[in-house]
Amino acid sequence: MTADFSLDGQIALVTGASSGLGRSFAGFLAKAGASVVLASRHIDQCAKAADQISGTTLPISIDVTDPTSIDDAMRTIEQNFGTVTILINNAGMVTNNLLVETPTEDWRQVINTNLTGSFLMTQAISRSLIASETTGRIVNISSMLGVVASGQVHAYAASKAGINQLTRTSALELARHGISVNAIAPGYIETNLNRDFLNGPAGSKIVQRIAQRRFGQPADLEGILLLLTAPAGTYMTGEIITVDGGLSLSGM
Ligand code: NAD
Hints:
The protein contains eight helices and seven strands; from the N terminus they run βαβαβαβαβαβαααβ. By secondary structure, the chain is an alpha/beta fold. The mean pLDDT is 97. A seven-stranded parallel beta sheet has the order 3-2-1-4-5-6-7, with helices on both faces. It starts with 10 loop residues before the first strand and ends in a 9-residue tail after the last strand. Nicotinamide-adenine-dinucleotide (NAD) binds next to α1 and α4.
């Protein structure tokens, strides 16, 4: 095999790494050879997650909505690890409300965390890569809901649609600096956040609409994550890759 799937020598930063998909991505990237920075607002939880990973890790506190917190973290990372070459914009949140009952604060918080947070992190990492003339890879975690309409997730769906366009516009501009930007749009992936919901009555209806008749597991995203971060996939940029077991294939 000539394709290079090793992440040896890479420095990866995963936002929202204290739980769920972020924690799983961090463990996988470390296994693939990268040194991994686990970032979220709660450094103690990141430290706990980092302890369970064999490899070089650095837990750090970042609130992706706060430029000062990002700048402080970037300084610490550069002093301890060097330039981050892989960014996984994974931090996210969701609220569920009818449109007419959605509090403005909920809307702002979701857009701020999911969309503005991804923008601020992309900006910080790109500035650092450009200044050090280093090539890099950015992977945004979007969602099938960035394309498909569903009830009571207005801010979340709008934020993920925004992430899809941020992926394309930043890919276009950053290509000249050797930075690729792609997105993964997962369907339903079982994490602590949604396990009870997916295993309840609503979940049994949803699973019938998935062509493969099962919810995804975090490990189902590892193949695409590796392609989008390893040298073998460098020529891909601006793509949004759906990984949903065929959910988006279901028609009427
Ligand atoms: P999760 O709640 O376990 O993970 C979200 C993480 O983001 C947490 O670690 C949380 O602390 C962190 N976070 C939230 N706000 C933050 C902030 N301001 N600054 C830094 N970190 C912050 O949920 P998850 O299911 O693991 O979701 C991870 C990502 O995957 C999200 O972007 C989500 O939208 C996306 N996604 C998940 C699914 C799924 O089925 N689980 C499907 C599609 C997309």
